[in-house]
Amino acid sequence: MKIQNYINGAYQNHHSGDWMDNYDPSIGAIYGQIPNSNKEDVEEAYAFAKAAFTSWSNTTLDQRSRILNKIADLIEANLDRLAEAESRDNGKPLWLAKAVDIPRASANFRFFAQAITQFSSEAHETVGTNTMNFTLRQPIGVVGCISPWNLPLYLFTWKVAPAIAAGNCIVAKPSEVTPMTAYLLGEILTEAGLPPGVLNILHGQGQSVGQAIVEHPDIKAISFTGGTTTGAHIARTAAPIFKKLSLELGGKNPNLIFADCDYGAMLKESIRSSFANQGQICLCGSRIYIERPIYEQFKEHFVQIVSKNKVGNPMDADTKFGALVSESHLKKVLSYVQHARDNEGYTVLYGGNRVTVAGSENGYYMEPTIIEVTDNSCKLNQEEIFGPVVTLMPFDTEEEALSLANDVKYGLSATVWTTDINRAMRVSKQLEAGIVWINTFLNRDLRTPFGGVKNSGVGREGGLEALRFFTEPKNVCIKYN
Ligand code: NAD
User: Of 44, 84, 248, 269, which one is the catalytic site residue?
Assistant: First the structure.
């Protein structure tokens, strides 16, 4: 199957005529081809986006809101088809795509359909001088949105929904590793009545089409989610040409477990926070620190439960963990386990191996892996692995737990398990992270600010923060008599 770019409201061929293979990770085989788009395609998409901007930015909020709601309705109506496409493209269990990825893509549009009708700006009266200032929040123009492969439609729509709600037009690029659902979204946009040119979707490699979006002198803002190294490269490219940037980058998140926690709830959620989506969520807690009195008990129970979860074909209903996204990613994740065994002498408590799934022998499957470490400065605790690998380490005091948690270059999220509200508050304040979950994980209210500190990114998405990012504030100062 060959997919196409979606430009000016229609599917069309790309300029180069080069194609890239698209893999089904569950069977380790090519199942389609995607356009290897380039700068020419970006130029074309930009021209249509620019042409659409005047009209779209003057569309009433009510009209924009209706179109966004219609897109949300159509995503819901296509739940099964989109979930199957997502699962096949990414390797995630079908039930997960059905329960989380696709409903959330719909919720993103529905949320910003409402949020834009509630968005307002400030006024400042300069008392005693007969002067009134008010802030106009105007759409930026044509913006670029670039997203990763781990939550393909979920994260793609998390960017494009607020951008168009705020009145911008977009040149967007989903990950070349998982382009399928963004491709299918094109049909939905047309059916929902989104005017041609408002959202253009280009497929291809980061270094070519992604780079061309970032370098384009008239694409005024870039919302990027992906790896920290790519984010740094984008910042280097975009900063000298003064683009507005939102960078949502990698994580190496701590899961702090205190002995006074609700043990049952903690155990259940820690399985999810460790291995959901095969550990390929930027928010997964890959470093688990456990207070010493419950360390041995946790270790035993955690290994016991994890070992019972089935790694299998994503389409099987009883599959808990599906395939990793690509062969190169699987090899990278396995190399960390190898390193832990060979170079650090660490004990792999469970897993660590590739899994052969009957009927899908070439798929990219891996056991969920638990490794006991003793030194926080080790590679496993410092680098983002982004796969089904977690480390366990005991701690003795709250201060030590905080010091271990903060001792990384990343700062995306943290999970804390305790029933002591005073400790929860103390720890939340001191954790270096953009998001702290206390006694829960991946619990998202779309109104809240989302993003990281340190090497996990710059800026916030979510709620009104996203609408602020996708608008330019202009102060208007009026002197009256
Ligand atoms: P990646 O950085 O390799 O790619 C992300 C996107 O950037 C892709 O669409 C890619 O084609 C594009 N890209 C690559 N080079 C580019 C360039 N020079 N110019 C413009 N675009 C370019 O990341 P990935 O492997 O797709 O995703 C995994 C990473 O994403 C992990 O580090 C993970 O933590 C991170 N992530 C972060 C969040 C968050 O919200 N903070 C969410 C999900 C994933």
Answer: 248
